[in-house]
Write a structure and sequence with these properties.
Radius of gyration: 21 Å
Number of strands: 14
Bound molecules: zinc ion
Number of domains: 2
Strand order of the largest sheet: 3-4-2-5-6
Order of helices and strands: EEHHEHEHEEEHEEHEEHEEEHH
Shape: globular
Length: 316
Amino acid sequence: MSPFVLSVPEVVTSHYVIATSEPPADPYAVVPWRVPEPFRKPAIEALKTPRLGIFTIDAGEATWRLDDVLACEEDRRRIRESSHQILLVHQALTVEQPHREQVARAVARALADATGGVLIDPQARQVLLRDGLARAERGWFRMGDQWFGTRYDVDEAARRLHPPGGDPTACGCLRITLLGLRRFGLPDLAIDKVACAQDLPALNLLRAVASRLLTDQWRWCRERPARPTRRLDDHPKIEPDDFWAFWGATPYLDGRPVITRLVTSSATTLEVAPPDGYAGTVADWSREVLAPAMPPVVGCPADEDSAHARSAGGGA
Ligand SMILES: [Zn+2]
């Protein structure tokens, strides 16, 4: 194991897009009273500064792609048919995240509410859901509240080599990228050569690694906010608690720690790989190590949501 150095940007940028056919004459005027506590006062302050800007354009003038975001058919249609896009551009000091980002997203949600629009998070490449317990920003930051999206890239050449009748958990045709970390000053995380029939353990490892890196980074920022680089262990031991912290949930299934290897592949991406000395493929590692270690959970409510559902008579 050896340390490696991660650059931590002083300032991070993010965008949110609201696709709407009812653009407000003055978007700044509709925002503050629609932003709930505890974000209202910081939102009003941020809107007075250049670090939070709102721009409305004709949909035909947009230069960014929205056709590949994760969305339901109804939202896709609404995005396609919208006449305007409201762009929210946000800048924050990395040391002030994630609170600043929550303020920005609370403003974006307020704009979407005011205009009957579809709220898109281009960095995570997904539409924010209007329904459910996570529809309003929480007072605390829960990573599982749609902050991170996924991109699945299939290596078609590898997929063509699938042996007919062969073991579907043995191929390596899939690359999974966890998106949305850059607004918090971290690279995206990717795992390559995953078996397409067994993607969940690999995806859950990415979520657990993200949880660990974010938690460590925020602690590091609080202690030494002026440093541009951070030393990391390139073979971190990821604990089941890192996975459950992502969802803000108390563990209800067993898991095991996993030693993984982090490799810098570009300025914007960190590869998550089997540790040095592991002789098999990523598919072998996923089957032998990740599947028994990572709880087979696609998503789960936060503890406070479960308590809320119980008190509302919704069952455990
Ligand atoms: Zn495959």
